[in-house]
Amino acid sequence: MSKRKSKDAPVPIGECIRQLQECLRERFCRQQPPSRLEASEAQHKHLLELLKRTAVHGESNSVLIVGPRGSGKTALLKCVLRELLQENEVQKNLLHVQLNGLLQTDDRTALKEITRQLNLENVVGDKVFGSFAENLAFLLEALKKGDRSSTRPVLFVLDEFDLFAHHKNQTLLYNLLDVSQSAQAPVAVVGLTCRLDVLELLEKRVKSRFSHRQIHLLSSLSFTQYLDRVRSRLRLSDCFPDRKFAKDWNASVQSLCEDKSVEECFRRHFNSSKDFRSLHMLLMLVISRVSVANPTIKPADVLEASRLCFSDAKSNMLHGLSILELCLVIAMKHLNDVYEGEPFNLQMVHNEFKKFLQRKSNSVYNFEQAVIMKAFERLQQLELIRPVDGSSARTQREYQLMRLALDHSQIMEALQKYPQCPTDIKQWGMSAFG
User: Fold this and answer.
1) In what helix (H) or strand (E) does residue 110 lie, and over which residues does it extend?
2) Strand segments (E) across 268-393
3) In this model, does residue 193 exceed pLDDT 90?
């Protein structure tokens, strides 16, 4: 009797909240591919057939998946691979190499990563090769089966494909596509890119070896579908430990999405970006506000999370500046006002800062020239100021022309929110001219 009572006892609210946040955070961060991609059946079938020819029949292929960010390029590839790997023969033989143009910025790094992912570090050892092609050929040769009659098929996925076109002589692309066109080894090269003009970036010899197959994904998502995705992402499944909590939570999610202010907030995000990664970032901020004291999502939570998502990064950066750096930004603002956006140099900024100091009786803001120069350099490192194009690198640092990369509203907002900003500096910043 006591066992049944403890089994049926409700789960404490604190434990339910912990399990809720753990479940939803894993859902948002793991980015598991959906079971079915809306409006991509034809593309799914096309890509599956291409990769099956390589994985099962040993036929080499190359293809580009083109579409804007958030259109589902990676999700499409993951869904196809998941279906492909359900076949035992493919699961045993297919090798998968994932490269990214943001990470593998040159051919040497890319080749090292290929070697690592194919587990061929011991095979390569201290061998020295004359060219990239020889090295790649050796790696593919090392993948041959024991009977030496055939080679295991390899799938090369090149994310941010357009960035590989910036490699010297496009050697990596040339050799991968050359192998995929020849009968050396069964290889499939799949490129993912956002650029519609990607083929124009390829050299003639590279372009001639590409199959010119392209799979286009265009985001045809409606706002109603987007809102349905929000609901499905926030809903708890039937397998959640506390059924009653899950039912109440799902009811609160439904009423939340029907709130006009929340709907307008999601519409703003939808119009800004249809990328589900940015939606997941927003929802992560929303669920972080759920607690024992606040067990459901309120419209105010969504509005605050939205404000954080759309907050200006540069304005936030200004809140972390030192008093001296903030003073230099204000001096630059006044120079911009007086000279109508003309470029300035450190000496001009220092002179403007001195005018402010002369109106003060105390010397709390007196800094040495070297300290001011260091603060000026840090503003440049933070990209709050930038050199004028064509400005000579041989010019003395004090006289190198700069432009302010902030507008009036960003500086005003920073002054209002700067923690414990001295009154005299705030007044100086708010004044029309220095």
Assistant:
1) helix 107-117
2) 385-387
3) yes
